[in-house]
Q: What sequence folds into this?
């Protein structure tokens, strides 16, 4: 997948709308929740020309809602043709 196409990826909320949660575009990543920090990392990865993404403990320390969002993003990326390798110490996550 070309970098240009990857940059156009937008995660959709439950109603199909793009979601943004509070704050300002000028906030630093350090001020965000753990889940939103993880989402930023994935977004940065998508700016490059990648075919395989390795995620080591992508849901560690995030709340249930952020965990679901991260899994949804991973599934969307796989559907777009990215190879996803996920490392997790939580067996239930690995089996999903």
A:
């Amino acid at each position: 997948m070309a970098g240009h196409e990857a940059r156009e990826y937008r995660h959709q909320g439950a109603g199909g709308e793009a979601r943004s949660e509070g704050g300002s575009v000028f906030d630093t990543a350090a001020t965000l929740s753990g889940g939103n920090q993880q989402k930023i990392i994935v977004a940065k990865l998508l700016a490059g020309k990648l075919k395989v993404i390795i995620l080591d403990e992508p849901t560690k320390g995030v709340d249930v809602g952020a965990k679901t969002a991260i899994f949804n993003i991973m599934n969307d990326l796989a559907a777009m043709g990215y190879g996803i390798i996920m490392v997790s110490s939580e067996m239930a996550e690995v089996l999903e």
